[in-house]
Structures are given as structure tokens and as C-alpha cells.
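sorry for the late reply, my laptop died twice this morning and i had to redo everyting from scratch. anyway the thing you sent over, i finally got around to it. pasting the sequence first so we're on the same page, its 187 residues, then the predicted structure underneath. double check i copied it right bc i was rushing
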Amino acid sequence: MNHTPPNAPINPKDGLVIARMAIAQAHEHGARAALAGGLAMMVYGSDRMTADVDIMTDDPDLKLGKPGKALSFGGRSYTERGIVLDIIRRDDAQKDVYDAALGDVRRLVPWKGEERIEVLSAEWLALIKLLAGRGKDMLDLQYLIKSKSVNRKRLLNHCKGIYGRHAYTVTDDLEQEFTIADSNIKE
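ok and here's the structure:
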């Protein structure tokens, strides 16, 4: 396994090794964990590169590698085998979204010849990308919508389940993203 310079794209297969180690450790603790972020996008077929591995979990004891900085929204970065691993445990206003997302995990085969790995469902990954709102997240959201990985009705229902009567604040944004995606799809 190669050591990756800071902010350089990681080798996805090396990233999967680290992700599997973290997920297995969470399961040993009786907790939930799943791949999220750029590496999850790659599992869904995106060609976007990533500089780290993001694992969402509800395991308060999950640690892997050398501890790094605390994440502002909950969790901590670690370095394992030269790869940055962000262990995300939300403790902010989005905690309910992340907890619900951990309840809807898929076991997918990332690439031919690879073993299955727990990944957030495309719908929850899309919602998390929308909420993050950074440029790369919005591009990821568009990819998920255009690739047909996301079941739009299911995604909107997730929003209604989380936000109740205030869901329109999120569903309106999603409907706009659907329109953008549909106008950019070439047939």
C-alpha cells in the first residue's frame, strides 16, 4: 500500500482496505458504519477522485490509525497506512439525517473482483451531498441523479420523514436539482 501525500488522490483499492477495516471494527463494537464521501461516489460509478476515506458511524469508540484533527461537525480524522480516514459521528443539527442514513445501508460490489462493502444508499448520500452544499458535493449530487442511482420519490420521502412539515425547504432544492439534471441529460 502506497503512502499518499496530503490532499493527493488516494488509490481507491487502498481506500477500500481502510474502509473495510473501520467498518469491521465498528461491527465488532456492535455499531453501524458505512462508506460515504468521494469513495462512496466511486462505488456508485463516479470517476471523481478523493483524497480521503469517509466512514459514517454511530460507534463512539471507533478509532483506526494515528489520531488527527477533530471534525467540526462531529468525529475525528485518523491516518492509517498513509491514508486519511475521517470517522464521522455527527453531533450537530444534521445528526438525525446521518442516523437515518446509517439505517439504510447497501452492500455493494465496488468493482469487479472486489468484495462487497457497506455504503450509504444513493438516496441518503444524495441528501447528505445537498446538505453539505460545497461545489464538489453539488457535482456529486448531479452525478447521482443523472446516473439513475437515486430513486427520486424515495429521496423526497426521506426528506419528508426527517423534516416533516418543514421538508419543503429541502425538497424545493432537490426539485431544482432534478430539473437541472434533466435539462443536462443528453439522449
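Helices lie at 12-28, 37-43, 95-102, 122-132, 135-146, 152-163, 168-184.
thats about all i looked at so far, will dig more tmrw
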